[in-house]
Design a protein that fits this description.
Elements: H1 16-23, H2 39-45, H3 50-59, H4 64-67, E1 73-78, H5 91-109, E2 112-117, H6 123-133, E3 139-142, H7 149-160, E4 165-167, H8 168-188, E5 196-200, H9 204-215, E6 220-225, E7 228-229, H10 236-242, H11 254-258, E8 263-266, H12 274-277, E9 284-288, H13 298-301, E10 305-310, H14 325-335, H15 342-356, H16 374-385
Parallel strand pairs: 1-2, 1-3, 3-4, 5-6, 5-8, 8-9, 9-10
Antiparallel strand pairs: 6-7
Helix pairs in contact: 5-14, 6-7, 8-9, 8-15, 14-16, 15-16
């Protein structure tokens, strides 16, 4: 049996008491942009002055973007069915995660957001609820909605709402993975189009990652689920994905797909045996992204791969969605975009890569989430790539 260290970095581990104390009473509160110091301030912010603003918006609804917070407000929406590594824990248990997401929006992109957890898993009901709430927000970040419902829900909301909608578990992950793979290719002097890529997991993130890599120029992408390599006989989204992947016609499971592969992307929580790693092409890249337990320990992966990344903050090369989603939504809202397009996602990935370009190493293929350049760079790139109707 191989013994490996628990952690590669000496990152202080918070205690349970620290964690619960930090969440006591929730992690969010509202603040004022207009002071309320005296009767005159009250007359401006509320009655009678507010009536002038309400009349103006009633005459021209577009003025709501200027005189309310809607064009800077993101609704963070979940039904609690696919939360982190916890699974279907329900809306109430999901709320601390959504509060955390809102805190990230504020901290990294200066966007206000409201967590909305819904006590239903019915796609029709969720769509109807958000359509009715549309006057209250300017964008929708879908979060922790289980596959395959998440695909239908996102598609229907994009059509039903005249504002940006993105399921971060899909597209945030895909954007950062592409940026990281661009960084890894730059470090190793390789070309994305020449790589044989294996993606383990055909859920929300796996599907989006495969699609963005293909859109970015990858030619050989193989996707697996628990039944093996996706084939044309699968239904729904998996059948669509099978039609555009696996150009060499590989059959079987992980062992067959991984033989001679250059890149492994883990998005399924399925453990990757060390002996399979040994069959990859020399100098491979391993992105073991499942949380909290990567598909293979980074110390083991490093014996076979030149680049190793995980989804955890206590190892080098964390593939963290916070590199993407704050800037993506900020850029979309800055541009007044109705949709977040594939072009905008590709621009976001390129922006993340560009920030890290001058300081790339095998242990730094993406910038730190706390690099203050990231969100502004992503926002500017997304806004420039937006097709505003």
């Amino acid at each position: 049996m191989t013994i490996v260290p628990e952690r590669l970095d000496a990152v202080p581990v918070p205690t349970s008491d620290e964690i619960f104390d930090a969440h006591r009473g929730g992690k969010l509160s509202t603040g004022l942009t207009t002071p309320l110091r005296d009767a005159r301030d009250l007359a401006i912010a509320y009655t009678p002055g507010v009536a002038d603003v309400s009349r103006a918006i009633a005459a021209d609804p577009a003025l709501a973007a200027r005189y309310t917070w809607t064009n800077r407000l993101v609704a963070v929406v979940s039904d609690g069915t696919a939360v982190l590594g916890l699974g279907d824990i329900g809306p109430r248990a999901a709320l601390p995660v959504m509060e955390g997401k809102s805190a990230l929006f504020k901290s990294f992109a200066e966007l206000d957001s409201i967590p909305i957890v819904l006590d239903t898993t019915d796609v029709d009901e969720i769509v109807e609820t958000l359509v009715r709430l549309r006057p209250s927000f300017g964008a929708v970040n879908l979060e922790d909605v289980s596959a395959p419902r998440c695909f239908e829900l996102e598609a229907r909301l994009i059509e039903a709402l005249d504002c940006p909608v993105m399921h971060d578990d899909q597209h945030g992950t895909a954007i950062v993975l592409l940026a990281a793979l661009r960084g890894a290719c730059a470090v190793d002097g390789r070309d994305l189009s020449a790589l044989k890529v294996v993606i383990s997991g055909a859920g929300a993130a796996g599907v989006a990652c495969a699609k963005i890599l293909l859109a970015a120029g990858a030619r050989d992408v193989v996707v697996l689920d628990s039944r093996g390599v996706l084939a044309a006989g699968r239904g729904g989204v998996k059948a669509e994905l099978a039609a555009i992947t696996n150009p060499r016609g590989i059959t079987g499971g992980t062992a067959e797909a991984l033989a001679g592969a250059d890149v492994f992307v883990g998005l399924s929580s399925a453990a990757l045996p060390e002996e399979m790693l040994a069959t990859m092409a020399p100098g491979g890249m391993v992105f073991a992204l499942s949380n909290p337990d990567p598909e293979v320990h980074p110390a083991v992966a490093a014996r076979y791969a030149s680049i190793v990344a995980t989804g955890r903050s206590d190892f080098p090369n964390q593939i963290n969605n916070v590199l993407a989603f704050p800037g993506v939504f900020r850029g979309a809202l800055d541009a007044g975009a109705r949709r977040i397009t594939e072009r905008m996602k590709l621009a976001a990935a390129e922006a993340i890569f560009s920030v890290a370009r001058d300081d790339l190493t095998a242990d730094r293929i993406v910038p730190s989430p706390f690099d203050p350049r990231v969100a502004p760079a992503v926002a500017a790139a997304v806004a420039a790539a937006a097709d505003v109707e």
